[in-house]
Amino acid sequence: ERERERERERERERERERERERERERERERERERERERERERERERERERE
Fold it and tell me: Where are the residues of the annotated region Disordered (predicted)?
């Protein structure tokens, strides 16, 4: 019984680990999004400069 309990515990641990991994992934995604946004902003700025 206790063995199975520890097994489930380790399972939950791995689950939480995967959760944190997905969280970091989403974070990096948002970062890249903001980067692309700033890029487009600079592009529009250069466009106005040419006018």
Answer: 1-51
One-letter amino acid at 9 equals: E
Residue recorded with tokens 């680990």: 17
- Residue 49 in tokens: 């400069």
CA dihedral sign, ordered 34, 39, 42, 44: negative
> What are the sequence ranges of the domains in the chain?
19-51
pTM, rounded to two decimals? 0.64
Amino acid type, 8? R
Tokens of 9: 């515990």
Distance CA 10, CA 3 (A): 11
